[in-house]
Structure formats: structure tokens, C-alpha cells
Amino acid sequence: MISSSDYGSHSWELLLTVDHQHEEVQKEFLLQVTGDLHVGGLMLKLVEQINISQDWSDYAFWWEQKKCWLLKTHWTLDKCGVQADAKLLFTTQHKMLRLRLPNMKTVRLKVSFSSMVFRAVSDICKVLNIRRSEELSLLKQSEDTLKKKKKKDKNSKEPLTEDILNLCNSPGSSGLSGSPGLYSKTMTPTYDPVSGTPASSTITWFSDSPLTEQNCSILAISHPNYSPEALAEMYQPRTLADKAKLNAGWLDSSRSLMEQGILEDDQLLLRFKYYTFFDLNPKYDAVRINQIYEQARWAILSEEIDCTEEEMLIFAALQAKYHISKLSLSSEAQDFTCESEVDEVEAALSNLEVTLEGGNTNNILEDITDIPKLADNLKLIRPRKLSLKAIKPYWFVFRDTSVSYFKNKESAQGEPIEKLNLKGCEVVPDVNVAAKKFGIKLLIPVADGMNEVYLRCDDENQYARWMAACVLASKGKTMADSSYHPEVNKILSFLKMKNWTMSSQAVSDSESIDMKPECLVSLRYTKKYKSKQLIARILEAHQNVSQMTLVEAKLRFIQAWQSLPEFGLSYYIVRFKGIKKDDVLGVSYNRLIRIDMATGDPITTWRFSNMKQWNVNWEIRQVAIEFDQNVSIAFTCRSADCKIIHEYIGGYIFLSTRSKDQNEALDEDLFHKLTGGQE
């Protein structure tokens, strides 16, 4: 009989493979081990056997069959579940990775393949000097987009050589606690708020970072020099199903790169996943602003997001600043910087003065006690399936989050013809400034879907007031909210950019300016208009933005992108419980939208603010969500893993907890609690 102590002390052989660069030294080792040997002891035993003098501190065991790292060095082999049939690879945790940034530049740097993706992205952003890393994530390109690119490459006679920015010597990405690159809480680099280049005071310490002054300019300044052929080769989603494919490849933030099948020197896309850009500041966020601008630009050029012809010309005009004004990093920009610094100081002083004096307390008390209302003559349009639209003028009153309309102003004291509650509705602009058309499309949730109503305003000022009120009401806010007046001003500034007239100067300039309009508008408009026509129309629109600085033009571009109806929507094909056909689910920062796959029309909207709880049944991969008023939905995801949608919802809720009072340290545990799930 064998005693239990004798049985427990029996050793066994374990095959270990070492990933090293020394060709003359063997890579496979057979060690005699016991189940009570801890992982750290196994590492020590292996290193002694290898007998190579080098730094092994970045090495760890990767268990190929289980697809997991053995990072808890104090755990025993028994506790880890390692037995004689296990194949362990002793390899580096930090490996080279190629990242395609939103501006289509590729950087190559060392990234942790053992950390959760959330932490890895944070480290990457520190090296690239992008604040608020929680807004970004890593995306693996879908097979469809790659197939299209491979087909194009085969047809091209000359081999494509990709310009890669090599940051492999990055101290921030080597796993060592050395210089944090450009990112530092105590010494954040300051950028010229006009041109977006590093200010002279911070250039002196660029040499300690992999991001030299030249490299930083590559990331912080736009270089729109792509050929029309390159634009034509891009993957252009035509349908909602195509758009859903773009979002299928998001990596799981709660697992490591290696666990998700990513190999050394693979290429991934670094993209802004969550469309809530918090605390943007031109002085510190030149790289971040430029990358957001570039992501927006490519989304518009590839028609990933729809916009009107008028809006496309505005986007083209804002991009055209780089072709027309050519504001270089010269003395002109230097003079601008000095002026802007004085303006900032004056602005800060005036803000301080208002704070100390307490502002106009009467107005503040009025805002608290008396919620503003709007009352105007507007036209109401209700689409009818079998007849023409009925357009009728009514007297409208907007109070709280509801719109009531009456036959005329005199009857406003009585009962309204109808009262529309806008909380949770979809608000879509229906504007053509040239045609003096200022409409607001309201999709109001009702029991059997969405009730479609159009409001037609007389002019842009009336439109801005009512549009801002509708946007706030859809979020459950009233006009007493502090964001109402900034929203009105934002709408007016966007309308002003759209309001241009043809001038003889623009026509003459179109002959002399060397511009490639094919690089500034989507393929749809290059097919519709000739090159000279496009240049003339872009120059018309450019008149309203010609006085902007380059950074201001980027911020205006981002703002205009945010005002598009489809902004911030990530699409997935889903099958709702009890429904026999597929639908599209749009996930935004504040709501979920069920969309008819055939027509593209929204069917129902659910706000995150009304959400009570959500969970996932991992066995059948079904997401279930409960809302107020006993509303509950459940669906399975057909175009991606349900974990991606689960993470999107939890991620947006996590980002809504941020505040400017907090320091920049994120509550990583809370993020994983909200997004990780319990598989």
C-alpha cells in the first residue's frame, strides 16, 4: 500500500518551451516537478536550466491549451490545474504590435500581451500622449474589409509600402517604470492652441520620449494627402448590415491580447469606441483632437455616417483650410499664440470676477423657480401613407419636456388639441439653409412603435431655440438646464457655416487653387459633380470658415459631426425574443434604438436613464434589459458576440460617472464590474 504522503510527493515530467533569440541554445526543456511547486519556483528552476545570462523579468508562462497566462507566481501547479500533459511557453509579456491610428498612420510599439486590453490601451495612450484612454479601444478588422483590400492589392501592379512610425524604443511601453513618454500628470505637454504643435517650453524634453517633435507632429497635425484612388479602395458600408460588420471586431477589454488570439506584430486598429469626448482642451489634447477629427473625417468620406449635400460641403470646407490657408508653423502662428495666451488670461480673470461677485443672483433664482417656456406659431406636418402631407399652422407652447399645440394663440388658455411628451424621443434635423427650410423631425415612442411628427420653423433663430429645447427634452431636461443656451449657440453657429452665397472671388479662386476635391467629399459627390464644380462650391462654403485657426476648424468639424442624426450610433444585427426576423440595434451613449433592417426606420428607443438592470445569459448568449414601467427586452446578437454589446452598455454607464473634479486615475475595477460579465 502507498501512503497518501508518498503519493503526494511523487514527481512528474513537464515539457516547457522557451521563447528566446539564441539559436545555439535549446528551446525545449523537460523538468521534473511536483504539484506543490509554485509557479515562481518553476520559473527559477527553468532559468537555472537554460543557463543564459539575460534579464528574464518580463517573461511569464503562457498555457497554450487553456489560452491563459500563469501570472500568479505564488500559486502552486496543482492550484493552477497544471498536469503532465500541459504545454507551457516561457515567453515575454511585452511584444511588438502594429496599430493603425484614426489618421491612417501606423505605429509600431511594444504592448503588454498579458494585461487586460483596458490596461494595455491605457499604456498605449500614455506613449501616444492621448488623454482619456477609456474612450478608446482596439478593433480587429472584419474579414469582409480585409478581403476587399487584399483583392485591391492583387490588382495593383506595384507593391504597397506602408510608412510605419516605429516607437519600439518606447520606455512607456517596455514594461519598465521609466519615463512615461509625453504623458505626465506633473508635466503635461502644452500645445499651441492655434496650430496644435508642441509649445516651445515642452519641446526641450521631447528627447526623453519616443515621440520626438517630428513624430508628435505626425500624430497632432492633419496631413490630408490621400489620393482619390486610396479613398476609392476604402471599405464603404452601403447598408446597415455593412455598418454592423464594422463593429464586430472590438476586442474584449477584460481579457488580454494573447487570450484573444492576437500574435506578435499583428495589426489592430486603435479607435475611439465611445463617443463621449470628455474635457477636450486644445492646450493638452492636440493629438487627441486630431485623432478624433480624423476618425470623424474618414467616417464621413467612407459614408459610414450619412449627411446631406449641404453638410458635406461644410465638412469639405473645414478640411480645405489645410489646402487653402496653409497656416504653417511660422511667425504668424507664433504671433497668434501670444494673443491667445493673453485672451485666455483675460477670460480667466473675467470668470473669476463673476464667481467672486456671485453673478446675477436674480436670474439664477428665476431659473430655479420658473422653468422657461417657448410659445410660437409653427407649422405641423403629419406624414400620411396614402395622401400628401398635411401642413397646418398652429400655436405651439413648449413647457418642461412637452409640446402642446392649439388652434391659435387665443385658445392657448384652454385644452390643447394634442400634447406631445418628448422624453425619450428621437430628434432629427430637417434643414436646408439655401432653400430656407428649417424643420424638426420628431419620432415619439408610442405603444406600437414611433409616432412621426414634423415641426416647421420660420427662420434660423426660431429653429435654434426650438431644436435645442427638443434635444434637451429628449434627454429628460428642460430649458432651465445650463446647457440650453450653449446648445442654441451651437446650432446657430452650424447654420451660419451653412449659409453662404456664390461670389466672383470664389469662382476665380477655383481656377488658381490646387485642390483635390475628390479627397474632401465622399464618392457619391465626386460622381455627381465635376472637379471644377466641386472646387467652386467648396470655396463658397469656405468663406464662412476662412477666419478660423486650424485647431478651431478641427473642433468645428467635430462639433458638426456630433450634430448629425446618426452620430455615435454603433450598429449590430440582433434577434429580439419572440420575433422571427432580424433587426438592427443601434447603441449610443444614452440610448438603444431598434431599427427596421429593411427600411432603416427607428421602431423603438430605450434610454439608459430609464434602465433598471441588464444581464447576460451566457449559455444561450442572450442580453436581457429591464427598464422603468415594467418594460423589458431580450435579444441575441447575430453579427457579433453578445459580450461586445454588454460591454458597450456598461462602458457608457461607466463614462457617465466621470467628473472634472476627479483626478485622471480611473476606477478600473468599476469598469470591469460594469462591463466584464460573469461568464
From TrEMBL:
SUPFAM superfamilies in UniProt: PH domain-like, Second domain of FERM
- What CDD domains does the entry give? FERM_B-lobe (cd14473), FERM_C_fermitin (cd13205), FERM_F0_KIND1 (cd17180), PH_fermitin (cd01237)
| SMART domains reported for this sequence | B41, PH
Q: Which GO terms describe its cellular component?
A: cell projection; focal adhesion
Identify the stretch annotated as signal peptide in this record: none
GO molecular function of the protein, one example?
Answer: integrin binding
Question: In the UniProt record, does the keyword Nucleotide-binding occur?
Answer: no
**UniProtKB keywords:** Cell adhesion, Cell junction, Cell projection
Where does the record place the PH domain?
Answer: 379-475
Family classification? Belongs to the kindlin family.
* The protein's name in its UniProt record: FERM1 protein
Organism for this UniProt entry? Bucco capensis
